[in-house]
Design a protein that fits this description.
110 residues; single chain; four-stranded mixed beta sheet; elongated; mainly beta
């Protein structure tokens, strides 16, 4: 499943339901996410929450141009019934985003 730029910027969260084992949810491209941000500039940040309501672990991965702080492609495993908060920071040149986890995984059912 691709998580659209508008879902990241406008709604700041997604509830993943009915995900199969081994499934990956991927963000839109950095270019599309940056284009969805009003008045984007280097360093500007957008918060986003990923909630895995399925009974399977899901990989939450960055689309093209979305990287972790070490510049590797962004990829995080979110266990079943857990959520995690992220921050997307616009990098210089307005062509890529750094996806930073800003919380540990937390239980959605308690």
């Amino acid at each position: 499943v691709t998580i659209s730029a508008s879902a990241i910027v406008a709604t700041n969260g997604v509830m993943a339901m009915s995900r199969n084992s081994g499934q990956t949810d991927t963000t839109d491209t950095a270019t599309n996410i940056i284009a969805a941000i009003p008045l984007p500039s280097p360093g500007l940040q957008v918060d986003f929450t990923y909630m895995n309501l399925s009974s399977n672990t899901v990989t939450f991965a960055g689309g093209t141009g979305v990287v972790m702080a070490n510049q590797s492609p962004a990829s995080f495993d979110i266990p079943a019934g857990k959520g995690r908060n992220f921050r997307f920071a616009i990098n210089s040149g307005l062509t890529s985003l750094t996806m930073l986890p800003v919380s540990d995984s937390y239980n959605l059912n308690s």
